[in-house]
Every structure is written in C-alpha cells, then in structure tokens.
C-alpha cells in the first residue's frame, strides 16, 4: 500500500478531473489523478471549436495540454483504473486495477459517461475489426473506403463530417426523421457530397467473416436492406459512469446522474463530483462546463479542508 496520504484523489482524467487537479495543486493540496485516458472522451473529438482562446484544437491535443498543465503544477497522475473506494476512518481508501491502495482525505468523481452500444449480436466481436466508437482514433484506417455512422446528434454529424475528409463515402444511419444537435455540424453533414443520410432506419445485423463487410438495415435503402461498408462508427450517446458512486450509496437522479449542490458536493461528506456525470450545468455536456465544475469543486474542497484544519488546531 502507498503510505502517502493525499489531500485530494480525483477519479477520472477528463477535462473536469484535470481542471480540478490544476486548481487543487495550485492551492498546494497534495493531489492525485487516476484515469487511463488522459483527456477522457474529449480525446475522441476531431476538433474542438468552442473552447475559449483555442478556436480550433483537436480533442486529443486539448486533453494532452490539460494533462501537461496539471503535471506542471504538481499533480501526480496514474494511468490506472479505480475499482473500489471504501471509507477508512477519516480517510478514503482507493483500490486500483493493479492491486494498488491509496489513502486520501477527500475524493472527487469526474468519471464522465460511457458510450451507448447498438446492443445487437456480434457488436463486441467486430470491435477493432470494422466497428469503432472513436472516429478520431480510427478514421485514417478508412481512407478512400466506405463507412457508416450511427446516430443523428452533434457527435454523429461531427464524426461524419470528419470521416468525409478521408473516406470515399459516408452513410449516416439515424432512427429519427431529421438531424439534431449543433446546427453547424448538421449543416456541414447535409452539405457534403459524399455524406448520405438514411433516416428512420436502424442497423439490425453486422455481417462479415474476419472483419465487418456489410450491415443489415431495418428497411430497404436503394432497394436493398444490405449495405456494403468497410467500417461502422457508433455515435448514439452515453450514460453516466456511476459504478463506484453507487457502491458508496451516493445520491443519483432518475437518470443516474450524480446529484451535486452548487459547490459540487455529493450527498456523502468528503466526496465531490464534477463534469458530465453530474446534475449541474443544466446537463450541457461541454468541455467548458466540465472544467468549470472541476474548478468549483477544487475551490470547495480547498475551503473544506482549510476549515477542518483550522477546527483541529
């Protein structure tokens, strides 16, 4: 077991967690961040165009910049997953997937969300073999090829637009009757000559031998229910990652988002939450709102620990 005692343990290395770590480290709190993906799901964004001061930056670069900033102000970063947390007297004991154990005075959950899946047969077996949840990561494997994007929100239209720059043809398959989300991304998707929108349609089967070769649609498109594709990108939303908060009996709302107050405090003393997994920021899941919540949480934690220290003297 690591014998050090941290002031703040942050579970999650996305914008909320890294923002909180920058503030808490600058408050001279001994801070550690756990997370296998620096930058979190923002790394999957082809381009972030609305983060103040950085008009056009890839999600991957933005995540790396945040991590570098965090480290430079003194945060300790561990690319590990937290599998359990238990209260241990005045501290929280954090268990990682490599059997590590760490102690911290407080915990901040910045666990973000998990991507939704199609929930059809062979989905998992084709992962990395023609099926992907990250267009940013895998787009270059489909240069001059035919791909499909599932979904009709901003994430889907952004992915389709990005893919249209490298792929020969892009099919957007959406169960709705019109694209939704950010109008700018929707407009770009509609105006690209190699993007084809298939409305009110679902993928009901994935077909291929060693890798994905075609998909079966819920209704015919161009007189066929089958569409030959080299790859499929799933962009159908996400759910809050609350496995650990649930274990601690932290209050969540009817949609399983962590309930927090204006200071990002949860229903359990000593535990905060920030970012997409919370009920704050009007559920507006943006980098700017995540980093804002992270900053508020760090300030609240600093005041909490300072008050405890004063009262113990």
UniProtKB/TrEMBL annotation:
GO molecular function: oxidoreductase activity
Natural source organism: Candidatus Dojkabacteria bacterium
InterPro entries per record: FAD/NAD-bd_sf, FAD/NAD-binding_dom, Ferredoxin-NADP_redctase_2
Designated name of the protein: FAD-dependent oxidoreductase
Keywords noted in UniProt: Flavoprotein, Oxidoreductase
Lineage: Bacteria, Candidatus Dojkabacteria
Superkingdom as given in the UniProt entry: Bacteria
UniProt keyword Flavoprotein, yes or no: yes
Gene3D superfamilies assigned: FAD/NAD(P)-binding domain
One Pfam family cited in the UniProt record for this chain: Pyr_redox_2
Residue stretches making up the FAD/NAD(P)-binding domain: 6-294
């Amino acid at each position: 077991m690591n014998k050090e005692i941290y002031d703040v343990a942050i579970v999650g290395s996305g914008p909320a967690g890294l923002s909180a770590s920058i503030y808490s480290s600058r408050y001279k709190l001994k801070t550690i961040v756990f997370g296998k993906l620096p930058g979190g799901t923002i790394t999957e964004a082809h381009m972030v165009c609305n983060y103040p001061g950085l008009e056009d930056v890839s999600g991957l670069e933005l995540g790396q910049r945040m991590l570098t900033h965090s480290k430079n102000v003194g945060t300790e970063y561990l690319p590990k997953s937290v599998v359990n947390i238990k209260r241990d007297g005045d501290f929280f004991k954090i268990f990682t997937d490599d059997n590590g154990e760490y102690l911290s005075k407080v915990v901040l959950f910045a666990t973000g969300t998990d991507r939704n899946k199609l929930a059809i047969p062979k989905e998992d077996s084709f992962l990395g073999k023609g099926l992907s949840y990250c267009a940013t990561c895998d787009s270059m494997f489909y240069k001059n090829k035919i791909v499909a994007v599932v979904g009709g929100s901003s994430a889907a239209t952004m992915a389709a637009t990005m893919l249209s720059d490298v792929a020969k043809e892009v099919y957007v398959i959406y169960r709705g009757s019109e694209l939704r989300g950010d109008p700018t991304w929707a407009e770009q998707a509609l105006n690209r000559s190699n993007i084809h929108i298939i409305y009110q349609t679902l993928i009901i089967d994935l077909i291929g031998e060693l890798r994905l070769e075609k998909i079966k649609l819920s209704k015919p498109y161009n007189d066929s229910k089958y569409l030959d594709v080299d790859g499929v990108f799933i962009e159908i939303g996400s759910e809050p990652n609350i496995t650990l908060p649930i274990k601690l009996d932290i209050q969540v709302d009817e949609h399983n988002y962590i309930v927090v107050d204006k200071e990002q405090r949860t229903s359990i003393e000593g535990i905060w939450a920030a970012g997409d997994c919370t009920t704050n920021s009007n559920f507006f899941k943006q980098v700017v709102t995540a980093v804002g919540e992270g900053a508020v949480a760090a300030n609240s934690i600093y005041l909490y620990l300072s008050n405890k220290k004063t009262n113990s003297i």
